C-alpha cells in the first residue's frame, strides 16, 4: 500500500502512550493510520533535560517500528517533518486533510494541558472524534471520581489498603499478608561503608541517540543536563523488561531497607575506569568529557529506575508489581515481606494516589501556594555549584543522569526550596524539566503538594521540612561538606539548620496545632530568646545571600 493512500481513521499516539498491550492493536486494519509525532510544543513547554527528550523521542521511534513490524500502518514524524506546523491541532488538521480522514481517535492524555488541547480541538472538528482509556493504570480514568474529591485531604494509607484488598495483592483473605499493612519500621536504614561492597552496579543501556541530538540542535531546542550520544535509559519493552528483571534479581531484596539512604562516599571508594563517552552536543546542553561511568553506583543504589518505562507506558504497573511479587514468592525467604511491601506501596499506592489527586484538583492545583512562597530559585540549581554538599550531590547527579531518587528529591532539593520559601511555580518548572520521568500528572502533586506543602495538605499531612540533622542521619553527605551540621548560627553553620527554624517560626500558625510538629515547637520555645534571635538572623543573612551558599 502506498504511504499516502487515504485512511479512514487517524489514531494519535502521544509520547507517553507507548502501551503495546492496548486493545487498539489487537486488530490490524489498513484503514487505520497510527500517528506518532515529535513536536516543538512538547520540547518547549518547559526546559527539559536533554536525556529526557532523547528518551521520549527514541522510545516513540522504537514503538513506531514495533507497530509497523506487527503489520499496522504507522506514520512517525520527526521534528523535521512537523516544524512547519504551529502545534498539535495544526498538525492533525493538516494530516486529516492529506489522508482524507473520516474519524479521529485518541487516548486520554494524562496531562491536563494536552487533554484540554485535544478536547477543544475535537469540539471544532467536523468528523466524529473518540477518546479512549489508556488501559494502563490500576484505576481507569472513569473510576477516579469514586476515590478522589476536589480539595479533600486524602491520605495514602487509606487508599492503598483499599487497592490492596480490591486487587488482592499481598493479602491473606481479608487481612494483609504477615498481619501488617506497613513495614516502614524495618526499612529506611542508612547505608554504611560496610554495606558498600554489595551495592549492585546499575544496568545501563547504550541506545544511540546521536541523530536525535543533531535534530534537537537543528531545531534550536533548548535543554539542560549532560548530553550523551549513548542513552542509558530503556526505550523498548524488551529493555524495560530487562531492567525489571535486573531489579528483581539484584535490588528488590534491599529495596525498602535502603530506600531513603544517600551517599557520596560509595563512588569515591571505587576506582574510576579511564575512558570516554562519545558525546554529541544538543544546543546549549552541557557537554563534557567524562570517565566511563560503569563504576558509579551511588546514584541508583537499590532503586528500580523504572519510572520512565512506567510513565511512558512501555511497562504496565500491573506487570511490574506482579513480576516483583512472583520474584518474592520464589525467593524462598531471601526477599522479606518488608521489602516487597515497600515496593508495591510505591506503585500500587503512591503512583495511583498521586494521579487521583491530580485529576480531582486540576486546573486549580497548578496555582496553589498555601505558604505564600515567592522567592526565586537560586541560580546554582542549574549547575550544582554550591558549597552545600547535599545539594551539590543531588543537583549534579540530576544534571548528569536526569535522575535522583525519591529522598533526594523530597528531603534534599525539595526541603531546601520549602524552607527557603522558593515560589512553587519555579520549583515545579525545575522538577518538570530535569527528571527523566517528569510528566505533570505525577510531578506536580509530588512537588507542589508533597514537597512544598503548597496545597495546604491535600497530598500529605505535614510539611516535609527538615534541618541538617535529617540529612546527616540518612546520608554521609555532611562528612564531605564545608558547613558544620551540628551548628546553627555560626558563620560556618549548616544553612539548613537556621533556614529550618526560620521556616517553622514563620509558619507557626500553620503548623503549631499539627500533632506531627507539636514537639518541634516545644523544642524551639525551649531555646533562650537570644539563641532564637541569632538563628533567625543567620537565616536572614542566608536568604539575602542565597545565590552564594
Ligand atoms: C519533589 C518530587 C518530584 C517527583 N517527581 C516525579 C516525577 O516527575 N515523575 C515520577 O514518576 N515520580 C516523581 N516523584 C516520585 C519518585 O521520586 C519517583 O517516582 C522515583 O524517584 C523514580 O525512581 P525509581 O523508578 O527508581 O523509583 P523506585 O524508588 O524504584 O520506586 C518504584 C516506582 O514507584 C513509583 N513511585 C514511587 N514513589 C512515587 C511517588 N511519590 N509518586 C509516584 N510514583 C511513585 C514510581 O513509578 C517508581 O518507578 C517525585 C517525588 C518528589 C518528592
Ligand atoms: S552540613 Fe548541611 S549543607 Fe552540608 S551536607 Fe550536611 S546537611 Fe547539607
Automatic annotation (TrEMBL):
Coiled-coil intervals, chain numbering: none
Top-level taxon of origin: Bacteria
InterPro entries from the UniProt entry: Crypto/Photolyase_FAD-like_sf, PhrB-like, Rossmann-like_a/b/a_fold, UV-DNA_repair_photolyase
Any one Pfam family match given in the protein's UniProt record, by short name: DPRP
PANTHER family named in the record: SLR1343 PROTEIN
Protein name as it appears in the record: Cryptochrome/photolyase family protein
Organism lineage: Bacteria, Pseudomonadati, Pseudomonadota, Gammaproteobacteria, Alteromonadales
Amino acid at each position: 500500500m502506498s504511504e499516502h493512500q487515504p485512511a479512514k481513521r487517524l489514531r494519535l499516539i502521544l509520547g507517553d502512550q507507548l502501551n503495546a498491550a492496548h486493545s487498539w492493536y489487537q486488530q490490524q486494519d489498513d484503514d487505520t493510520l497510527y500517528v506518532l509525532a515529535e513536536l516543538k510544543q512538547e520540547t518547549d513547554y518547559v526546559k527539559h533535560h536533554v536525556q529526557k527528550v532523547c528518551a521520549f523521542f527514541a522510545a516513540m521511534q522504537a514503538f513506531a517500528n514495533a507497530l509497523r513490524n506487527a503489520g499496522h500502518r504507522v506514520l512517525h514524524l520527526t521534528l523535521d517533518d512537523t516544524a512547519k506546523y504551529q502545534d498539535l491541532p495544526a498538525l492533525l488538521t493538516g494530516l486529516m486533510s492529506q489522508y482524507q480522514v473520516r474519524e479521529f481517535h485518541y487516548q486520554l492524555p494524562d496531562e491536563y494541558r494536552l487533554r484540554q488541547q485535544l478536547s477543544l480541538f475535537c469540539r471544532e472538528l467536523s468528523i466524529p472524534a473518540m477518546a479512549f482509556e489508556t488501559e494502563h493504570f490500576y484505576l481507569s480514568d472513569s473510576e477516579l471520581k469514586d476515590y478522589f474529591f476536589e480539595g479533600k485531604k486524602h491520605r495514602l494509607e487509606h487508599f492503598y489498603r483499599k487497592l490492596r484488598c480490591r486487587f488482592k495483592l499481598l493479602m491473606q483473605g481479608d487481612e494483609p499478608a504477615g498481619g501488617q499493612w506497613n513495614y516502614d519500621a524495618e526499612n529506611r536504614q542508612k547505608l554504611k561503608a560496610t554495606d558498600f561492597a554489595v551495592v549492585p552496579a546499575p544496568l545501563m543501556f547504550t541506545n544511540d541517540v546521536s541523530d536525535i541530538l543533531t535534530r534537537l540542535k537543528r531545531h534550536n531546542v533548548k535543554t539542560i543536563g549532560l548530553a550523551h550520544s549513548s542513552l542509558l535509559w530503556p526505550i523498548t519493552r524488551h529493555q524495560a523488561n530487562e531492567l525489571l528483571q535486573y531489579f528483581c534479581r539484584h535490588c528488590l531484596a534491599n529495596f525498602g531497607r535502603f530506600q531513603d539512604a544517600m551517599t557520596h562516599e560509595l563512588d569515591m571508594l571505587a576506582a574510576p575506569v579511564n575512558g570516554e563517552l562519545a558525546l554529541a552536543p544538543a544546543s546549549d546542553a552541557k557537554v563534557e568529557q567524562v570517565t566511563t561511568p560503569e563504576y558509579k553506583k551511588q546514584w541508583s543504589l537499590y532503586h528500580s529506575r523504572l519510572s520512565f518505562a512506567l510513565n511512558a507506558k512501555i511497562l504496565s504497573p500491573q506487570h511490574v508489581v506482579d513480576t516483583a511479587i512472583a520474584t518474592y514468592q520464589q525467593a524462598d525467604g531471601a526477599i522479606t515481606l518488608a521489602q516487597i511491601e515497600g515496593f508495591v506501596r510505591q506503585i500500587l499506592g503512591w503512583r495511583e494516589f498521586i494521579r487521583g489527586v491530580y485529576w480531582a484538583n486540576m486546573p486549580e492545583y497548578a496555582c496553589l501556594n498555601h505558604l505564600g512562597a515567592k522567592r526565586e530559585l537560586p541560580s546554582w540549581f542549574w549547575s550544582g555549584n554550591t558549597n552545600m554538599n547535599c545539594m551539590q550531590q543531588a543537583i549534579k547527579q540530576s544534571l548528569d543522569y536526569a535522575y535522583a531518587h525519591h529522598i533526594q528529591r523530597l528531603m534534599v532539593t525539595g526541603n531546601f526550596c520549602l524552607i527557603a520559601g522558593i515560589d512553587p511555580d519555579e520549583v515545579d518548572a525545575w522538577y518538570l524539566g530535569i527528571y527523566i520521568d517528569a510528566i505533570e500528572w505525577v510531578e506536580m502533586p509530588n512537588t507542589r503538594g508533597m514537597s512544598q506543602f503548597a496545597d495546604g495538605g491535600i497530598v500529605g499531612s505535614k510539611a516535609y521540612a527538615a534541618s541538617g540533622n535529617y540529612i546527616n542521619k540518612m546520608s554521609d553527605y555532611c562528612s564531605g561538606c564545608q558547613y558544620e551540621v551540628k551548628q546553627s548560627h555560626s558563620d560556618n553553620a549548616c544553612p539548613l539548620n537556621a533556614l529550618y527554624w526560620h521556616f517553622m517560626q514563620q509558619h507557626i500558625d500553620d503548623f503549631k496545632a499539627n500533632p506531627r510538629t507539636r514537639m518541634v515547637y516545644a523544642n524551639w520555645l525551649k531555646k533562650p530568646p537570644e539563641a532564637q534571635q541569632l538563628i533567625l538572623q543567620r537565616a536572614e543573612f542566608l536568604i539575602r545571600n542565597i545565590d552564594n551558599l
